Amino acid sequence: xxxxxxxxxxxxxxxxxxxxxxxxxxxxxxxxxxxxxxxxxxxxxxxxxxxxxxxxxxxxxxxxxxxxxxxxxxxxxxxxxxxxxxxxxxxxxxxxxxxxxxxxxxxxxxxxxxxxxxxxxxxxxxxxxxxxxxxxxxxxxxxxxxxxxxxxxxxxxxxxxxxxxxxxxxxxxxxxxxxxxxxxxxxxxxxxxxxxxxxxxxxxxxxxxxxxxxxxxxxxxxxxxxxxxxxxxxxxxxxxxxxxxxxxxxxxxxxxxxxxxxxxxxxxxxxxxxxxxxxxxxxxxxxxxxxxxxxxxxxxxxxxxxxxxxxxxxxxxxxxxxxxxxxxxxxx
Length: 332
Description:
By secondary structure, this protein is an alpha+beta fold. Helix 7 (237-250) packs across helix 8. It is 28% helix and 18% strand. It has a four-stranded antiparallel beta sheet with strand order 1-8-6-3, with no helix packed on it. A hairpin with a 2-residue loop joins strand 12 (275-277) and strand 13 (280-282). The longest helix has 18 residues, at 213-230. The radius of gyration is 25 Å and the shape is globular.
């Protein structure tokens, strides 16, 4: 029996997504709940899984394709047998030279393969930050940016190779080297939201300095005892969250929002905490932060941070906050 695999229902307000890279190839056996491909939206990354066991018969959308809710992605033959390697189409198993030398079992996307080949890089020399250690475009770009100037230059092409075989290095009008890397959907949405915030809201920046010495002394005094008792480290974010909640209770207008011609006052405190993820800045929400103890806050922040690093945050984790905190202390 042939079973169609389609784009799953997308979260509210998400109209389309981009296929990242197929983890299975035509002719390969699949089991129930095996991840076939990852679908990146402008909010989260969804996994498209096999709903039946069998053999992946056809792929209808290539890596990088833009798809919408319900689009046909692939077909599984529940009665088929895994094809031999030589019977799989060349296009389905085509691997670049950079891929063949990659010691990381995670499949590389076309964009990553292109960057590796173009810059004569060995994928195994770069640490991947994606799911299960998968190498992402951002990892390669960061590696190139931090590559020591004394690093040996890529080997020159053989003298017998035609001039056209060497890929031209992109340059600006003055002949200076450039590199153009497409943004992920999440980074596009971050840029869009920042621009909308600047254009649609009155921007006010104010700086207030406080003496953190008492907090630092308290943390130093109790951090070991706190970790032993609660099985989590005592950081500064729990202090910041508690201080923010206390301030919002004192000034409820700051915890409100504008909806059309109305001001909506919130009787709860859902605090967003900005964290970095492999795909960009995300702001998971801590619900009812006013009801959390210091230990609850620290555990929740670490839980949300871990979900962000592994791209496991859901839409519900990212929507509905009443106030946002970002801690730039790690950047000095």
